[in-house]
Amino acid sequence: MRLERPSLEWELEHKKYVEEWGPSRMVPSSFNIDGFDSYPAYLEALAEREKGNGKWLPNTNYFLVNDQNRIVAMVDIRHSLNEHLFNEGGHIGYSVRAVERRKGYATRILAEALKKCKDIGISRVLVTCDEENIGSAKTILNNGGIEDRSFVDSEGSVTRRFWIEN
Ligand SMILES: CC(C)(COP(=O)(O)OP(=O)(O)OC[C@H]1O[C@@H](n2cnc3c(N)ncnc32)[C@H](O)[C@@H]1OP(=O)(O)O)[C@@H](O)C(=O)NCCC(=O)NCCS
């Protein structure tokens, strides 16, 4: 099991992940390949996003890849927080391939992402989840998350917020 940066090598695997994901909004959004003319065009846009261009803050993205070279999970590490990330997004966003859930991969990719945060120098890591996302809340608690106050948006949706000392 290892982390790999998005590159042309992962085009087919990434596309399979997206197919299996279905129509709902891709999480993390940095892995959404819809609307690009080609995979290289997606990679170029991702590179700009990672540098913090446009509306983005600098961030780094990884696939969690198993020994059979299948992508089992994805993670986006944001290097700092703006108001939206402080309230709702957090430093780290992740998802697990639909057919690979309930096998500990979310817990694993969050643990790996925390190591990367340490390398970047993020010592207090904010990780969030929707109120109803029990699997994600458990993933955060498995990695030492301490719950802070929740954020409630204008429509009443509740985001649970946890800090992890790193
Ligand atoms: C939420 C998500 C990341 C969990 O991934 P996962 O690989 O299944 O999680 P894990 O196997 O590491 O499980 C962590 C814990 O949550 C539990 N869990 C996972 N999914 C669950 C679910 N749907 N309902 C209840 N518990 C669940 C597991 O049993 C495990 O509990 P344990 O530690 O007590 O054994 C995955 O379902 C997913 O990708 N969902 C869509 C994207 C998303 O919600 N991302 C998170 C945004 S904050």
Automatic annotation (TrEMBL):
Domain N-acetyltransferase residue range list: 1-165
Alphabetical list of CDD domains matching this protein: NAT_SF (cd04301)
InterPro entries assigned to the protein according to its UniProt record, in alphabetical order: Acyl_CoA_acyltransferase (IPR016181), GNAT_dom (IPR000182)
SUPFAM superfamilies given in the database record: Acyl-CoA N-acyltransferases (Nat)
A Pfam family recorded for this sequence: Acetyltransf_1
Record-linked PANTHER family: ACETYLTRANSFERASE
Name by which UniProt lists this protein: GNAT family N-acetyltransferase
